[in-house]
Amino acid sequence: MASHPTSLDRRPVETSSGAFFKVAAMLLGFALAVVAFAAAMLWADARNARDDANSASQAASQVETHAALPLNSFAGVVPANAQALAEAHRAYDAALPAAKTGAVVQVHMTLKDMAVEIAPGVKYNTWSFSGHGAPGPIVRVREGQTVEMTLTNGGTIPHSIDFHAARIAPNRAFRDVAPGESFTFKFKASDPGVYMYHCGTKPVLAHIANGMYGAIVVTPTSKPLPKADEEYVLVASEWYLNGDGIKQPASLDMNKAHAMEPDWTTFNGYANQYVTHPLTADPGDTVRFWVVAAGPTLDTDFHVVGTIFDRAWPNANVTGTPQRGVQTVLVPAGGGGVFDVKIDEPGLYPFVSHAFAHVDLGQVGLLKVGNPKGTMSH
Ligand code: CU
Ligand code: CU
Q1: Which ligand is nearest to the CA of 162?
Q2: pLDDT at residue 148, rounded to an integer
Q3: What tens digit of pLDDT does each residue of 39-92 get?
Q4: Which ligand lies nearest to the CA atom of residue 161 in the structure?
Q5: Which ligand is nearest to the CA of 201?
Q6: Nearest bound ligand to CA 155?
Q7: Containing H/E element for 222?
Q8: What's the structural domain count of the chain?
């Protein structure tokens, strides 16, 4: 029978003859050549990819340049009779509404497309939650109450409502509601604070920019806050206009919204409204501000000129220990904050976003303490 050599048979032969080393050296040389070739190819590929990336980014920057340059600002553009219009404007009522009794608080909002004034003589086509512009109504409940929210869509496209105060499956509760339809959902307000609500329908940037936002205040009952004499709710937001809004209402300029270059920034939807129509307090009162920054994108650096926060609850963490003696507190877009001031000396005390471009764009108001003489230059 023919016998086949086994590997055991072969190994000593190759080793002894030196053939193994020759073959190994040959293979090693070949392998090195392959590696060198592959490296060369990879380098060439990388160089090509880099060149491609460079030319793509050059092309992109050319496109961006073309998109960015025509952004035309309408900041501060108002008609000649702006002062008279500002005085005639009925300011959004910033007073914290009284809490309702009962275990369930029913809230009904009907969406409506409507043009509203956002600055003196400047109209904007909003998608309004409440039928009277932006922000939507202040919702006020007590910790532990259940909110039964009904949304009726009187607009022309789908909308929804997202409550930051809720712990709930968004796909169920914050779902789109078709035009002409109503939808009801409930949630228990278990977490005290001040929260944003807004339309969460895509593109959310456009829906918030068009005025679909508001504040819900959940006052704590498990650990009540110190007494306040006046309580005001401020919703900060910014507006991006495709025209000056004077002869005809402006609509959203999405390029400006992406570039974060607003034409107007406001408290409660209208530039400088509490400069013309100040919020009021008596000397020695504790005034509480419940602040939400609705954005859609920009934060608010809340500050009251001429005083220091006696108590500040950053992020509206009202069951936590307040910060004392702080000057300016960030309210992030989509977030809230609660601030107490006690002012003894009569005067006009501006409240602002201390990111001062916002003051020039309209995010400033006055707290009038007592009956001071004179006016405020801010
Ligand atoms: Cu919407
Ligand atoms: Cu949100």
Answers
A1: 2
A2: 98
A3: 444 444 444 444 444 444 444 444 444 454 568 999 999 999 999 999 999 999
A4: 1
A5: 1
A6: 1
A7: none
A8: 1
Q: Each residue of 303-339: pLDDT tens digit?
A: 999 999 999 999 999 999 999 999 999 999 999 999 9
Give the Å distance between the CA of 100 and the centre of ligand 2. Answer: 25
Domain boundaries, position 131:
86-369
Tell me if 63 is assigned to some domain. no
**E strand or H helix at 31, and its extent?**
helix 19-68
258 Cβ contact partners less than 8 Å away, ≥ 6 residues apart = 205
- State in Å: Cα 208 to ligand 2 middle: 10
Neighbouring residues of the ion ligand 1, judged by CB less than 5 Å? 159, 199, 201, 207, 212
| 153 located within any domain | yes
The helix-helix angle for 19-68 and 7-17 (nearest 10°) equals 90
Output the furthest CA–CA distance in the chain (Å, rounded).
124
Nearest ligand to the C-alpha atom of residue 197: 2
Work out the number of other CB atoms within 10 angstroms of the CB of residue 255: 14
DSSP string, 243-273: S-SSSS-B-B-HHHHHHT--SEEEETTBTTH
Report yes or no: 212 and 159 within 8 Å, Cβ to Cβ. yes
Task: Using the mean position of ligand 2's atoms as its centre, give its distance from the Cα of residue 237 in Å.
Answer: 14
Question: What is the SS3 string spanning 80-118?
Answer: CCHHHHHHHCCCCCCECCCCCCCCEEEEEEEEEEEEEEE
SS3 75: coil
Would you say residue 4 lies in a domain? Answer: no
CATH number of the domain where residue 346 is located:
2.60.40.420
- 322: which 2 tokens? 């307040």
**Per-residue pLDDT tens digits for 150-182:** 999 999 999 999 999 999 999 999 999 999 999
93 inside domain: yes
Q: Cα of 68 to ligand 2 centre, how many Å?
A: 28
Which token pair is 159? Answer: 């909308």
CA of 214 to the centre of ligand 2 (A): 11
